[in-house]
Amino acid sequence: MTASHILLLIGTYFLILLLISYFTGRNDSNEDFFQAGKQSPWFLVAFGMIGASLSGVTFISVPGWVQDSEFSYMQVVFGYLAGYFVIAYVLLPVYYRLNVTSIYEYLEGRFGPVSYKVGAISFFVSRVLGSAFRLFLVAIVLQEFVFDAFGVPFELTVVFSILLIWVYTFKGGIKTIVFTDTLQTLFMLVSVGLSMYFIIDKLEWGFADFLASPQLKEYSKIFFTGDFLDRNHFVKSFVGGMFITICMTGLDQDMMQKNLTCRNIGEAQKNMVSFSLILVVVNFMFLLLGALLFIYADAFEIGIPVMDGSPKSDLLFPEIALNNGLGPMVAITFMLGLIAAAYSSADSALTALTTSFCVDFLGIQKRPENVRKKIRKTTHIWMSLLLIVVVIIFKYVLDRNVIDGLLTVATYTYGPLLGMFAFGILTRYAVKDRYVWVVASLSVLIIMGISALPAQFLGGYVVGYELLPLNGLLTFTGLYLIRRKTGGVNPEA
Q: What is the pTM (predicted TM-score) of this model?
């Protein structure tokens, strides 16, 4: 598949998204942009959230991780499942009872304005970095397999990618995204299924042959329960995965904004539970695909692609799909799946960043009605520019597998949110609000210090994603130390 063909495919795909945007964005109101009028069908939200949760990171980086980590990622996925049930039956009832637009409004009612800003800032930094990770991954694939052929620099590839997102979200916002995410999830799942089918066929196997093959057994170990000091021990992975989900979904405006567009709490909970069960199966399919890719690469002597002088396993899937004789169907479905996976998370992130900044920092709901739309649209542009800058910076500083990097960043940035929401929900204490930013900052600095300690200094213990709940615990403890005897600003908030 040539670069010109891929570019034509991308153009056709975005024409479809623009058509959806035209019909969903005709109202062009702030209510539709932020909350979709609270009329989204729960099953559409659930299906679309699969694509938004997986993103281009899962689509490429999880399969590329299989060689080094086997199927140990499933331990984290099982933790995700537990976390989704906490979200459905602990956090969602709080958000619906308070009828919030930004979930961080809860912190203002519970503790005060400083806590509110600390929560909003924590999300803002988390989502900018997380979205940049995802966009960086799709940008390097587009650069490697499309734009290098035209002599286009990486920086322009990034601008092009984010400009396309801005174009189809600037009117409809979350209302548009509920529908585009549904389409994007469908493309992504079809792509994975067809890629597996054609690779297995090329290996002259049936699916049962693949599952029974000794080659698969080299990659398919799921549970690691031997040495607790290892980073991928089951307990550490499961607990870390559970808290990653609670934070990166339940305490994240991006993911919760979709849930808050459902008609009522019952539909939102049905959405969350059904989505979480499907997600376990889908993640397992991605790991099977990863094993297939490495088996295929070994069978046909395909090397891992090199970028900037070092092997990059994240690029193995596109290398095989586009350049190694699997036919145009695999190439087409791969590109559709990649674009769908990447943009289904990036578009909602851009909308969520715009929503959070307008509501949490600019107080748009307190501004005159005649200027609210202008504020929203201007903020939308500035958020797009911010993502462009951060993605370009990543090209020069990122040196690890993208999903590993994404989850590592989450241990730093989501910890304060975890601690503040847990303290607010599990206790009735108020806090000395003006000191909350100090507690949050110290917690992050301590966690960064712990993560930098060599394993030898910790008796061979390798720290992993358990740093996230530890970060939350440090924040929780700090809030307890600055508690006040009376109830919170509003203990029922």
A: 0.75
